[in-house]
Amino acid sequence: MWDQRYGTDEYVYGTEPNEFLREVIAEVIADLPRQGRALCLAEGEGRNAVYLAEQGFEVHAVDASPVGLAKAVRLAAQRGVHIETEVADLDGYRIEPSAWDVIVSVFCHLPAKVRQDLHRQVVQGLRPGGRLILEAYTPAQLALGTGGPPDISLMMTLDELRSELAGLEFEHARECEREVHEGRLHTGRGAVVQLVAIRR
């Protein structure tokens, strides 16, 4: 499915970073070390990984689609930065412990059991002072129909995330609606959960 979706010259989610990620890096956690290590989960065509590399981070982008990650590498080259990529299914993926200054999860929608296991690893994967930056669709997105999976079991709520990410301190956490204009497949009003969480 993903290779087919990404198998076009078009960047279907755009080439600019997720708006929430950009805001967080610029305003909320400007104290993060710009030479730090960043892990981008379900990174697709690379828009967020390339943005972080442009900010000075050493970026490792993971996705199940080699087609998407090839486009990510091309985008990085066009922007004059370097990213490392890894083709991997997040079901069973192992995050290096205590290794990451930033972990980014943007519209990374997985079956609940897979997500819960991954989020436990996120907690352990962050260095002390490291942050998780996450934005995802909530179940309310199904009624809006402006992007995301058509399956409520793949959506997230803030209450679920508080449980799954036990061990992190939430610095910013909310469910809201916002205008999402990130490529052709995320266009219109979206119901999202947004959070920034730190490992103390």
From TrEMBL:
List residues traversing the bilayer: none
Q: Which SUPFAM superfamilies match?
A: S-adenosyl-L-methionine-dependent methyltransferases
What Pfam families does this protein map onto? Methyltransf_25 (PF13649)
Instruction: Name the Gene Ontology molecular function terms of this record.
Output: methyltransferase activity
- Which residue range or ranges hold the Methyltransferase domain? 39-130
Coiled-coil intervals? none
Gene Ontology BP terms: methylation
Protein name as annotated? SAM-dependent methyltransferase
